[in-house]
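Quick illustration, no need to memorize.
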Amino acid sequence: MQQIIPSNHVSISPSLQTSVRKLAINPNHWYVVARSKEVTNKPLAVTIWKQAIALYRDSTGKVHALEDRCPHRQVKLSHGQVIKNELECAYHGWRFNSEGECAAVPYLADNQKLPTCQIRRYPVKEQDGFIWLFPGNKEPNIEPMGLPEWDNLNYIATVSVIQTQAHYSYLIENLMDMYHGHLHQDLQAWAEASLQNIDEDENKVHAHYTAQSYYKIDKIWSISQLFFPALRRLHPEPLDVSYVYPHWVSTLGNDFKIYCLLCPVNETETKAYLIHFTSLNAFWRLHKLPVWFRRFIKDSLFGAAQKLLDGLVVQDVKMIEEEQQAFLQNPEIRNYELNRALVSVQKLMKNQVEKSS
């Protein structure tokens, strides 16, 4: 792994800057397309990089993902319903099994054979409260990144959905650049970020900052800091942010861990799930309580940081979309960048897409 010590001057070539804003994705990774609770026996339409997909559960609860297109008349299968574990088109009632094969046509004559048309099936996994999908053309040889804190009783989760009319590169750069805490004012968890070094390889970029944290979760009443800014006190903490292609993860000291799980839709639209975990590891007495009670506490406090997280998302999305619009209106204008981590991030994006071609 290469380690880079930041310098005072950063140069991003105009050609790299322009090409990044039009990059596709490397499809040979797992992307998150929905939360588990969103997928039922009623088909759900999702899109991952211009590919329309229908998600549904069969009678056993297993999730399947099929191309969202009936080959008969090219209408969306997600408008239909699940019948006998098969996805039925709303238009003429053609049914497709989980492999994408035509399994039934209600008006098929005795002397007719089933059409041999087939639609694409996608590898899909349900893990850690989310639906992970692999859009590549080959069978996956890697596992989803996963969220080990999701079921861990020592972490309280909050989930916020990011919907932005911007290329995914803008979102990743926003998340990797801790100097933008200036934007968030009372909502930010950190202050005085300073980039120390960068570790990178062909799959990830780790940026290590020092910072001042507003929160210290060391006593049972400390959780109230999420709701009352007057209780917060600055103290030094390491702030690490990582672009583990195609997702992002951050840790602030021992108290907070945040993931951003991406679902790029197209060149100017990105969906993502931001998951914030507050650690209860400091409460050793809590660990001695019965598991059922700890589970009750974890479930009861789910979404405790919702207002904070949603507020951050609103502010970030506004800036990200302004960046996108500025690029569309004047793509030849060059940015002046001082954060070397963003140079590494742009190169990683470009290399990943080139690797997939």
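The longest helix spans residues 306-329.
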